Amino acid sequence: MAGPPASPSGDGGIPTAGGIGEERDVFVPVADISRIMGKVILPDGRIDEGAVRELASEFITRRASGESDGCKRAKREAMAGDDLLPEMAKQGFQAYPHKNRVELPCTMEAGPNPLPVSDVRDWSELPLDALSAIFMKLGTIEILMGAGLVCRSWLVAAKSPELWRFVDMTRHKLVFSKGGNVMCQMAKVAIDRSDGRMESFWAQKFVTSELLNYIASRCNSLKSIRLIGAYYFWDDEDVVIKLAAKCPMLEEIEYSGQKLTWDFFKGIGAARPTLKRLRVCLPWYDSDSIEREIRMEQRQNDEEEEEEEEEEEEPYEAWEARHNEEAFAIAESLHELRLLQMAGYGLTKEGVYAILEGCPHLEFLDLRECGHLLVDAELKARCANIKHVRLPGAWPHAHCPELDTIKEDEGEVIEMPNLYEIEAQALHNEAAMENDDYGENYWDDYSLPSSPGSPAPTYSMDDPRYYWEL
C-alpha cells in the first residue's frame, strides 16, 4: 500500500509546529484566494487578465513587505532582487530563476517626496545672465528709473558694466519733464556704472560743460558722443574740443542745434584729426536778412544822425568766403571723415567742392536746408562718387539710416491743458481789466485752484511752489 502523502514541510510524518509556521508563511490565506479567484474567473468561464495582474501584484507586495523588514534588520537601505527570488521559488517558480533574476530590477529605492511647487513665479531668483539679457533690451532711463529699483537682485544686475557701454538718454519724455540737474545726476550714475567701458553717450537738451568734463575724466574708451539740442556752453566754450583731446578712441561727434564757427572745426581737427563722423545740423535761417533788418532798425532809431550814410554793398567774393569759413575749416582739418552732416549751414558750391577735395574718404554727406547752395548738374556730378548724398530740394532720395537725425523735441509728450484752469484765468483777467487794476505785476496776488473743490495755493505764480500745489 502506498504510504501517506508527504507533508509540505518535507518530512514523511505529521507536520511539526515549525512546518505549520512555514505553511502559513508560504501560502496565501484562503480568504484572499476566494476573493481574488472570484474576480479571475468570469461567469462565462473566461479568465480576467486584470484580475490575474492584481493577484500577482498582491503576492509580490506581500512577499516584498516581509523581505523589507529583513532589510531593515540587516541595516540595508534597499531591497535587492535576490531577496525575492527564494520566496518565488517556494511558490513554484523554481524553473525560472535566471529569467526572473534578469527581468527584476536590481534595486528598489524609495525616492524623496517632491517639494510643493508654487504657482507664483519669483522673478527675483532669475540668473544674473538672464536678467542682463533682458535689461539689454531696455533703455538707459528705463533701467535707472524702473528695472533697477524692483528688488536687490535686479539692482545688482542693473549695475553690470556691460549694460552701460551704450548710454542713450534721448527721445524720452523724462528728458523734457525732469530738471536738467536731475538728468545730469542720472547720467553720472550711468557713467560710474560703466566702470570706464562706456563707448557711446547720447544726450538731449540737458548736457552741461560740467557733465562733459565728468565724461572726459572717466571714459577713455569713448567712441561716440552725440549732443542733440544742447545749449551753448558759455562757461567753457572749448569743452567739446577738450573732451575730444582726452578720448583717444573717439570717432563720432554730434553737436546739433548751435551755429558753430570755423575755429570750432579747426580745434576739433587739431585735437582729433582721425575723426570719422561729424554731425552739426541746425534749422536753416537766413542770417543775412536778419542782419539787414537789425541794421535798418538801428538807423531808424538813431535820431542824432542827420544824413544817412549809404551802406556799401559787400562784394560777392567776400560774402561767399564768409559763408564758407566752416566748410574750408573742415576741409583743411578733418581729412579722415566718412560721414558729414551740415544741414542748415550757409555754404555754397565752393565750400562743397573744398570738402570733397579735403575729405577723399567721404561716404555720407547731408547738406539739406542749406539755403545758399545752388544744386545743378555740375554739383551732382561732383557728388556722384559718394555713396549717399542729400542735397537741398533733391527729392526723392534713398533712405539711409546713417543719415537719420534726432530732432530737438523728439520724444516730448505734450499733455492737454486743464480747461477749467484756462477758463478761470481768462475770467480773472477780464475782471481785472474792468477794474483798471491790470498792471504789470497783477499776478503777484493771483491764485488759482486746480479744481473747484481744492484749496487755493498761497504762493504767487513766480514761486515754483505755486506749481507744486496745482
How many angstroms does the end-to-end distance come to?
A: 123 Å
**How many DSSP E strands?**
10
Share in β-strands: 5-15%
Q: Could you say which overall geometry the principal axes of the C-alpha atoms support?
A: elongated
Q: Trace the largest sheet across and list its strands.
A: 3-4-5-6-7-8-9-10
CATH homologous superfamily classification of the domain at 161-288 and 319-390:
Ribonuclease Inhibitor
Helicity range: 40-55%
Helix-and-strand structural type: alpha/beta
Our Rg estimate from Cα atoms comes to 45 Å
CATH class of the domain at 161-288 and 319-390: Alpha Beta
The CATH architecture of the domain at 161-288 and 319-390 comes to Alpha-Beta Horseshoe
The third-level CATH topology of the domain at 161-288 and 319-390 is Leucine-rich repeat, LRR (right-handed beta-alpha superhelix)
Helix tally?
A: 20
Order of SSEs: HHHEHHEHHHEHHEHEHEHEHHHEHEHEHH
Mean pLDDT: 75
Main sheet attributes: strand count, strand direction, barrel closure: 8 strands, parallel
Low-pLDDT windows of residues: 1-26, 95-106, 437-457, 461-470
